[in-house]
Amino acid sequence: MVLKGQQPQKLPDDRWNNLHEWFKNNAKAKEAEVLFLGGDHIALLEQSNYFIENLAPLHCLCFGSIGDTAANLLWRIENGETDIITPKVIVVSIGESDFNMSPNEMLDSLLTIATALREKQPSAVIYFLDKASVIDIDSTVIDTNGEIDVVDFFDFIHLSQEGYKKVFEVVLVAINAVLSPAES
Fold this sequence. Notes:
Blueprint: H1 15-29, E1 34-38, H2 40-45, H3 49-55, E2 60-64, H4 70-81, E3 89-93, H5 103-120, E4 125-128, H6 138-141, H7 161-179
């Protein structure tokens, strides 16, 4: 699959490919019920207190790469990053580095990623964190004036500890509904 007009943007050195290979090796070594895929927010998720206290016990893997675009993520999916494991839930957060995409192009990209994931992981429940999301995170981090608060995004791009808590409380509810449906 190809994203219209989009190509993966690799770093000039081999870090991006090394990280991709590390993710694949990590998948071989761990049994994951939940897979987080994406760019900056997922790359930094494991560093958050909320992840450590609430998500890590659910057997999660975080395959996030700083600066990744939707085209990068699609390449990673198509090149084996999700082939080794069979998670019950996949949570995708991508787009924060796709500055040149229109909203319609971003939606098309998310649909292409969803199709690729569905082909690789037909039994997984897939959630997207985005303005066109299945999990609505906007109401948790955007105030009534439509603005974000520095408390939630320390640099107005990346989530703070408080931002991770607000956003991923909603995600945790969705994940638990899949992993433990009787308790939901």
